[in-house]
Write a structure and sequence with these properties.
The chain has a four-stranded antiparallel β-sheet. A three-stranded antiparallel β-sheet has the order 1-7-3. The longest helix has 27 residues. It contains eight helices and ten strands. With 243 residues, the protein is α+β, with helices and mostly antiparallel strands.
Length: 243
């Protein structure tokens, strides 16, 4: 199961030969559940595994001494948010469950061996890091240059587009089990501002978020409103297997 999930993720990023595929399918590890807000990997610690999301929703964040925090990314089922940790001796951010989640944990030593023996796998792991870097740059631009309603609309567009590419959209909705506090920590907004901004977006009729789901009523108009261009996501067309 773990090898298949890892293979599905990497083939979103590029082609692999049969030998590479067979080597990836042999990857093993552990499946583990985490509660909402429970840390999977903590800033300041030495990484010992990489993560693939099976179910739920993860978040990457940095905390300040005053207790405030900035969320830098959200991760959906099928995402592999910490492949770059194979090159790190100390984490500079934390990865936690935004909702009850299950993940696959791949030992760093096993991943390093695979990359050493299969150069094409190493190429795709590197490409994964570059794609995530592009997403971080887009988040920085979004939060610093867009109005609150534009930034929230942009984030909704990104999550919906990524969910759609991963085969996670049902009808016109996808899972987005985020509290208003989490949305505020991702956008740099207070709870009151999040509530007011979400209400404004609801009034447009383009989108809604309630009971842990994102409902997209008019993606094209919302994307135009948010100046959203999904090119930075480098999305593939295949669906990821998590069973």
């Amino acid at each position: 199961m773990i090898g298949q999930a890892f293979l599905d993720y990497l083939t979103q990023l590029g082609e692999l030969c049969e030998e590479d595929r067979n080597a990836i399918l042999k990857v093993n590890g552990e499946r583990r559940a985490f509660r909402r807000h429970e840390d999977i990997a903590k800033s300041g610690t030495q990484p010992s595994f990489s993560v693939i999301v099976v179910t739920g929703f993860l978040q990457r964040y940095v905390s300040r001494r005053d207790g405030s925090r900035q969320i830098h990314a959200f991760y959906l089922p099928g995402d592999a948010p910490s492949l770059e940790s194979v090159h790190l001796d100390c984490l500079d951010s934390s990865l936690s469950a935004a909702a009850h989640s299950e993940v696959f944990l791949i030992p760093i030593a096993d991943l390093a061996d695979l990359m050493r023996n299969r150069p094409r796998v190493q190429d795709l792991v590197w490409r994964s890091s570059l794609v995530q870097s592009a997403q971080y740059r887009e988040w920085l631009t979004r939060n610093s240059r867009l109005t609150a309603d534009g930034a929230m609309a942009h984030m909704f567009c990104e999550i919906y587009k990524r969910a759609d590419a991963a085969g996670l959209v049902e009808g016109n909705s996808c899972e987005m089990p985020l509290t208003q506090e989490m949305v505020g920590d991702a956008l740099g907004l207070t709870g009151v501002h999040v509530n007011r901004t979400l209400q404004h977006l609801r009034e447009t009729g383009y989108v809604d978020h309630h009971r842990g789901r994102l409902f997209m009523h008019d993606f094209d108009r919302l994307a135009n409103f948010a100046d959203f261009d999904p090119a930075y996501l480098r999305l593939g067309n295949g669906r990821r297997s998590l069973n």
